[in-house]
Fold this sequence. Notes:
Layout: H1 2-6, H2 8-60, H3 65-72, E1 76-83, E2 88-91, E3 114-122, E4 128-137, H4 139-189, H5 204-232, H6 242-254, E5 263-270, H7 273-280, H8 282-299, E6 305-310, E7 313-318, H9 323-338, E8 341-343, E9 346-348, E10 352-359, H10 366-382, E11 386-389, H11 392-413, E12 417-426, E13 432-443, E14 447-449, H12 451-461, H13 464-485, E15 490-495, H14 497-500, H15 505-515, E16 523-528, H16 529-534, H17 536-548, E17 552-558, H18 565-568, E18 575-578, H19 580-584, H20 590-605, E19 609-613, H21 618-626, E20 631-633, E21 641-642, H22 643-652, H23 654-658
Helix pairs in contact: 2-4, 4-5, 7-8, 8-9, 10-11, 11-12, 13-15
The structure holds ligand C2E and calcium ion (CA) (2 copies).
Amino acid sequence: MKPLMSSLTSRMLIGILLLQFILFPVLFGGLLYIVKKGYETQFIDHVRSDAYILASTISSSPDYSIIEDAFLSGRITYAEVIDSSNNQIYSSAGQSVKNVFKEDFYFGGHNDNQYNLIILITDDNGKETAKLRVSYDESSTRDQIDEAFQRGLLFALIYILVSVLFTVMLGRRLTKPIEHLRDLSREIAHGQFHQEITVTTKIGELSSLARTLEFMRTELMAQTKTMKHQALHDALTGLPNRSLLHERIDQALFYPVNAKNKLALVLIDLDQFKEINDSFGHLTGDNVLMEVSGRLRSIVRQQDIVTRLGGDEFAVLLPTADEEAAVRISRKMFNALLEPMVIDKYSLRIGASLGIVIYPEHGDSFESLLGNADVAMYAAKHSGGGIKVFNRELSQDAFKNLTIASDLREAIEQNQFFTVFQPKQDIKTGQVNSAEALVRWNHPEKGLISPADFIPIAEKTGIISGITKRVVEDVIHKLGVWREKGFNFSVSINLSALDLENKELSEYIVELLDKNNLPPEYIELEITESAIITDPLKALESLDKLHKTGIKIALDDFGTGYSSLVQLRRLPISIIKIDRSFVFSMTKSDSDRAIVRATISMAHDLGLKVVAEGPEDKETIDALKLLECDMAQGYYISRPLEEDKFIEWMENNHKILSDVKLEKTGWLYTK
Ligand code: C2E
Ligand code: CA
Ligand code: CA
């Protein structure tokens, strides 16, 4: 029953049939009633006038032959004439007197198929002389009525049949386009909307429905197109994203390679992006990314694909490049990114590290190629930015990094860290009255691991707090021991961004100094620009707290970030350490020398002392002296030394250092 009821045609059919069932009996019955009544009145009128003619003929001449004729012709079935005293004068066909002869006043009375009439026969004066009783046969009229009924019924049946047929046809005409539309809608629902929606129908509602569906289809098509685009492209730069790169690489790997037709993937990571984002805001950061994307695109060829993988990471797919070509194009991209960018009125310099992989040598899938490109890129970043082509040793290094993270925790527990000290020399006086404490990790299997390899990982994983605590404890303890032996100088300790969030650190340092009987001047803290810039307000708060204890604070690696000296005036800093990348090349590069000179003079204007990091030769020391730099810390003076060697070094350099007088805040080697 359900499928029958659920189709439009059957519903219409049932509706129409129901309507016929109600309407039709009324209509049909009414019509037949009128027809029947018509026949009956016609019959009654006819028999009455006939009977009157009979009566008037008899009254004018009492001859009953006219009745005889009527009887014989079958018009009447019975007739008699009775006088006023009820005696029969004449009876048709010699029938006996009908005692009970009742007049009929409507057709079909008495159920005898007879219509009885009593007509008065009068003389000329209108006086009644006799009565004519006459019966007419009703059956032929009844037959006519029956026949009319039958015909009516036949018409009714034809009518119902025709209307059913018509309904079915109309239903089909209606449902066919609807079904067609339904099929098309189903296709759309299944994502196949490339066929235009049209129906051939004159039904306004249906063609309007079809138009609406067609509109919906084109909208969907457009939306799907944008969604597909969004899914495969980066919203900011409009460049293809990781998914599209994946797709393209998969497609490219599908075809066999030949020696000439290799594929290269270059992974690019910007070097200063986080700092720019933090100090200039995200809008400027976004504009830098746009500029980078534009520069990369302008360099590559038509068939190459520049993609943004996220953050400040880009990848360039070179579908027809061998190693030589990939390196050539990478160099172009590297140089283009080095050019200063003028963004939001700032002139910014951004470096990049590029890692190159070649298919099939360095991987045979998207994942392996991208993973190895990442390894190459990190290796490039590690060596201070530049371009690296992947090789197997690099991937072993990367594996090493992974194990470092898991080994670090154990290293604290098992005391695998120790501190080395690198002297800082006052270049005006030659005195050495301070040193920097630098941590070293003696890994049980891997041997000595450089802080450059594990400090970034320790910072990322939060283990740095434990390392800082260890260094602080070790340095203050040693300072206490040395002081008792008569060595007096200050030692600086490196802090990371995370250490600035540690509210108890300053209390802990003061507590340790007290315990070892040391004034706060024995300790200096080195904080990098980037640690301050990450959250300047928080940094200011903790630096203030440390400063109030009497501990001096030095700004480390100055020049690598984007802080201006004026900005830094608000911070309680008394020393600036110029990054060794500028100092190292200051005798060869005019621009680096200019940076060192400007930094020194500005720092002096602000009342700050300047330490030059990393001089490796006498020339550099002389150049620094000329620029009136206060102090230097570099291999030329001494490499970082273990405790015993450090003390020995201090003793051997006694002569140079001892004849110089103590400066007001400095701590002199006095043994
Ligand atoms: P840094 O704070 O800038 O330390 C100075 C680095 O420059 C040291 O490297 C030092 O050995 C090196 N250096 C000194 N003079 C010269 C020179 O003439 N030429 C060259 N090429 N290098 C020179 P090191 O010890 O490998 O430390 C690297 C970085 O690791 C440090 O840079 C510092 O950021 C971090 N670090 C070291 N110890 C600690 C620590 O205890 N805590 C924290 N948070 N970071 C530390
Ligand atoms: Ca340092
Ligand atoms: Ca430094």
